Amino acid sequence: MTTVMLVGATGLVGGAVLRQAQSEARVARIIAPTRRKLPPHPKLENPLVDFEHLPADAPWWAVDGVICTLGTTIRKAGSQDAFRRVDRDYPLAVARLARQHGAQAFALNSATGADPGSRFFYNRVKGEVEEVLRAVEFPSLTIVRPALIGGDRDEFRPAEFVAMRILRLADPLLPRRYRIVPHERIARVLLEAAVTAPRGEHIIESDAII
Ligand SMILES: NC(=O)c1ccc[n+]([C@@H]2O[C@H](COP(=O)([O-])OP(=O)(O)OC[C@H]3O[C@@H](n4cnc5c(N)ncnc54)[C@H](OP(=O)(O)O)[C@@H]3O)[C@@H](O)[C@H]2O)c1
């Protein structure tokens, strides 16, 4: 039986991970630090935290595996620096603390095109977070790189809305790696990685998220 930490549990993919983990027999406990309270569940511990000031000594860092679905948009964050803070620095801070407390596995929701040398800022930051996580040296590191994520959001994101429309129309003609990926499928892959902790580094590109 595994204890998993989930960061990003109030989001689209994180919400699916949370639901799946709650009904997954191999998961005994879920630690989900958030800044907004989650509905209670018998398996869930939900510390309310400020990711700028994570409590380094909290006993709940002692988990087996970590799943990170944190992320924002440049529009929401307000600047590129603020975006990088959420999408790179917060996952790194969580990874370091969990690793120090003995975590063996880390599963990251990254993105297609992640590359620290990319000329696109978003892809560059995703590449950077992957790189800094490698340096934390988890025995098991899984990086999942979906293309556009499908699912219902409360929030309206104009660029994603337009991309989604176009991709839905083109879907049958598109190679698998460009297709919209349902959020539940990404969640399933992340959860499996955190529970089974396969040794070494595993990169799962969008066309392999099934
Ligand atoms: N959208 C796409 O099509 C797409 C494609 C490929 C990869 N991705 C990546 O996939 C990941 C998950 O995406 P998603 O759509 O599930 O994201 P989402 O629905 O926007 O959820 C993001 C999560 O991050 C948390 N978060 C954001 N800013 C925060 C802050 N300043 N402090 C603390 N928590 C913060 C949110 O918490 P609150 O609820 O408190 O805001 C939420 O739990 C992201 O890293 C995203 O970049 C997205």
In the CATH hierarchy, the architecture is 3-Layer(aba) Sandwich
CATH fold name: Rossmann fold
Number of strands: 9
Which distinct ligands sit in these coordinates?
NADP nicotinamide-adenine-dinucleotide phosphate
Q: Uncertain segments of ≥5 residues (pLDDT<50)?
A: none
Mean pLDDT across residues: 95
Number of helices: 6
How would you classify the helix and strand content by structural class?
Answer: alpha/beta
CATH class: Alpha Beta
Describe this structure in words.
This protein is 37% helix and 18% strand. It has 210 residues and is of the alpha/beta class. It has a single domain (2-208), classed as NAD(P)-binding Rossmann-like Domain (Rossmann fold, 3-Layer(aba) Sandwich), CATH 3.40.50.720. The strands form two sheets. A seven-stranded parallel beta sheet has the order 3-2-1-4-5-6-9, sandwiched between helices. A two-stranded parallel sheet has the order 7-8. β7 (149-150), α5 and β8 (181-182) form a beta-alpha-beta unit. α1 (12-22) crosses α6 (183-196) and α3 (80-100) runs parallel beside α4 (121-134). The longest helix is centred in the middle third of the chain and has 21 residues, at 80-100. The protein is globular, with a radius of gyration of 16 Å. The protein starts with a strand and ends in a 5-residue tail after the last strand. The mean pLDDT is 95. The chain binds NADP nicotinamide-adenine-dinucleotide phosphate. NADP nicotinamide-adenine-dinucleotide phosphate binds next to α1 and α3.
